[in-house]
Write a structure and sequence with these properties.
The protein contains 13 helices and no strands. With 299 residues, it is an all-alpha fold. The N and C termini lie far apart (66 Å).
């Protein structure tokens, strides 16, 4: 017996409603990892954030409800990648929910649109297709987030190179280590400099040294290029050493690594174009030479 897609979707919606109702009535056990994370006052993400990051759209609010219900430890969200792209977990979950719902309803919508247009489908679309599309669309934001995080991490490395030069100039102007870090962060207006400024401001509220906060930020975002300058500035702040030349050498080394990475990406892109160009040349050769060859063979 082939069930109607409308019956399948209706049953799925009813089942989700029953699960949500049971979840609201029965007390749930809190996730231990989330509780310990919220109790840890030393983590930077537990401090007050920008109010603009609060859920605004309906799907973001749904994502926030799912996050509170299931817990971040259960959902296993890629926290580092979300921090890099500046996206909240609620917004990411809202995007995943909206795409999964779209994938679930896509077969039904396609059949309905075809029937309204007067072109009925000659075969029935099974309900498993909607569930499969829902799973694929649920995982799609994670793939996109991974690609965006790679690009954001590359931008972060370029900004850290500029930040190193600025800190070196501030130290050359006889600025204290703490002042050099703060003044250099105030020069740039990109998202990386904004995150560094916020990190230094939260370090003042926590009562920790700014280089310790930068070191922690490098670990949380998995950007080691920011951790090395933090160690260098820590030497200047704790022992009073002159680190201007060391910062310059670190910036030069990072610049060379970025150039090498850019060349490797360019070479990889060139290698990917070899086959398409060869196929294009082959097609053009056949297109130009075939008429002449056919005439020679016919004469």
């Amino acid at each position: 017996m082939i069930l109607s897609p409308f019956a399948i979707v209706g049953g799925a919606v009813a089942g989700i409603g029953l699960v949500i109702a049971a979840r609201g009535v029965l007390p749930g056990r809190p996730d231990l990892g989330d509780v310990l994370t919220r109790m840890d006052a030393n983590r930077l993400e537990n401090l007050d954030r920008d109010p603009d990051s609060q859920p605004v759209t309906l799907m973001e609010k749904a994502g926030a409800v799912l996050l509170r219900t299931a817990g971040e430890g259960t959902l296993r969200l890629p926290r580092q990648q979300l921090e890099l792209v500046g996206r909240s977990p609620a917004a990411h979950l809202g995007r995943k929910l909206s795409l999964a719902l779209y994938g679930l309803l896509l077969p039904v919508l396609s059949v309905s649109a075809a029937n309204l247009a007067g072109f009925p489908f000659p075969f029935a679309i099974p309900a498993v297709a909607g569930l499969g599309l829902a799973v694929v669309f649920w995982l799609l934001p994670d793939v996109q987030l991974k690609q965006q995080a790679v690009e954001a991490r590359a931008d972060f490395r370029y900004a850290v190179k500029a930040y190193l030069r600025l800190v070196q100039l501030e130290r050359a102007a006889d600025a204290a280590p703490t002042q050099a870090l703060k003044r250099a962060a105030e020069v740039g207006d990109g998202w990386v400099f904004t995150k560094i400024r916020d990190t230094l401001a939260r370090a003042d509220l926590e009562g920790i040294s700014p280089w310790e906060a930068l070191k922690r930020l490098s670990v949380e975002l998995d950007v080691p290029e920011l951790g090395a300058p933090a160690d260098i500035i820590a030497i200047a702040g704790e022992e009073g050493a002159a680190v201007g030349d060391t910062l310059g050498a670190q910036a030069k080394s990072l610049s060379g690594a970025l150039v090498t990475s850019a060349k490797a990406k360019a070479n990889m892109a060139s290698e990917k174009m070899v086959m398409p160009v060869a196929m294009l040349v082959l097609l053009m050769t056949v297109y130009i030479g075939y008429p002449a060859l056919s005439r020679i063979m016919a004469s």
